[in-house]
Queue: 2 jobs
Job 1
Amino acid sequence: MGGDAALLAVLLDDLLSRLGRAAWDTLESWVGPQPLRLVAESLAATLWVVSSGISVALTTLCGILADLLAASGVSGDRLVRRAALGPAEVQRVLSWGFAAAAGSWGLSRLRGLLVPALRWLKLFFFLGGFFHVAASPESPTAKAGLLLGLWVLYAVLGRLTAPPGPSPQLDAAVRRLEWKVEELQRRQKWGGPRNREE
């Protein structure tokens, strides 16, 4: 079991290395090798300093927590001491965190472009699945179960591709219109023709 985790870590690190190498080659073709090397060395030194600082802070906090656990008689102080990460592990966690943040940002940008296409694709697959189930030689009970499952899948996918909520511009426009309506109501109440007769 421990070997599986080590193999997974190696595969994930290899994936991150390949992604990094592809990004490096692309940037090198755009910027050139010398400026990119200087920027990379500066970033690597900065990342190592930050990783070392985080590692020292984690080691200190884990040591304090382990001492508190040992003083209170609760077992687990050895486990807490082993939880302290070295600078290389912190650097790996920071790299994966940056990759996850960049991926999330990229996917959120792509989502706005892909949502209309996904709606049509979802409808196409749903209709294809519906006609396939309707034309299949299954029993009516099996067809009903398959159609129910297909409908649930369609509903779940509909939640994923639901249109986004109202935009801030729309909210601001609604607030401006509400303010104008209130202003008109005040003017009508205090300065309208009905009040002038009284």
Note: Helices lie at 2-31, 33-72, 77-82, 87-135, 140-160, 168-191, 193-197.
Job 2
Amino acid sequence: MESLSSILSPKPLSFSSHKLSPMAASATISSLSFASMPSQQQRTSTPKRTSKPTKTLSPKIPTSTITTPTFPPKKVLVPIGFGTEEMEAVIIVHVLRRAGADVTVASVEPQLEIAASGGTKLVADTSISTCSDEVFDLVALPGGMPGSARLRDCKVLQKIMSKQAEEKRLYGAICAAPAVALLPWGLLKKKQTTCHPAFMDKLPTFWAVKSDIQVSGELTTSRGPGTTFEFALSLVEQLFGESITKEVGQLLLMSTADDNPRKEEFNKVEWSVDHTPRVLIPLATGSEAIEVVTIADILRRAKVDVIIASVEKSVQILASQGTKIVADLLIGDAAESIYDLIILPGGTVGAERLHKSKILKKLLKEQNSAGRIYGAVCSSPAVLQRQGLLKDKRATAHPSVINLLTNEAVNGAKVVIDGKLITCRGLATVTDFALAIVGKLFGYGRARSVAEGLVFEYPRS
């Protein structure tokens, strides 16, 4: 059986010599009211706006969780607070749910809706106080500031984490959280640990390790948004084993080799503008949460004005894998402005609902006619195809829908740019996609700077 290192191709992972617990021993890796909905129902049902049957893009992208033996589901807690890093929170939740874990997202704030560090608004499943007496197989802390400090200052969460460590169940933290939360709680003692480069000097020197992923007994730590997929898959392997980890990695389009180019560009034109770029990301029920959050987060880091607009009747959206996102505006209000770039996120259900939005269809048509930039990821390039916006254009898409595109479909490359059109395969490739946009708008220097903040390996030229 291949190990996780054959699925990914990041730098080798580092492990301490401390003995792993039985559960961790397999970690050998080289105006909807969401609050009133039961959390499991939120994750497994998709509300319909009408009773009419919905046509879907075919073939469907696999979105279900992995089939696992009929044991009790692994229970996972992911706490969030004001300033939590949204990429880290959403990727951790998405990956673990895909693997079959029963994930609870709990707010450490008085309310369930929180504004994340990059400005995206997320809605938790429950309050942390409801989790105090539960037993979790894993508790995983996302990072971000001041989110990590908000987690640290939550006494209920501190008690949960201390008990988790005492009873030798799995726990993990990423980015600032190892140094800001776990360290003052006393949960890093004699544990080799990594964290975001900006916080490495806070860690005990002898135990600090500059690896992307560090497993030390029951504790797993990682560096930042750019290493979150690897972090989440490490946790999946420790919970479920190698086989499921490999399957999840393939569904996420994790890189299996370095021979496929990150980006191919045709009919090169300049994208630079003489003002702060404005970008519209339309959002629908079932939209791929990882793609929405990652693109918005990275572009905002680059100082782009990003608007997430709901095509539904409410700004509160149940996205893929049960992630709840609150849009900035309704699409009708967003349509009053002009955007330098419109980006369609994927997700089979979400893409179909985007396609049915008359307002969005009009915006895209005007965008094309005016010679402005537009793009799509995952399943949504097929939406552009159906609307006649890929004519004589080279594009890529999720492997399951790329055959729906024109004869100009480009296989292999993660990101394809043709003039003022940009597309990508989706999921784990959207970081490259968003950084490609930053590079086109601002130049290589800005893109590389953003990538360094993410702790994401970016080409030197």
Note: The chain is about 30% helix and 15% strand.
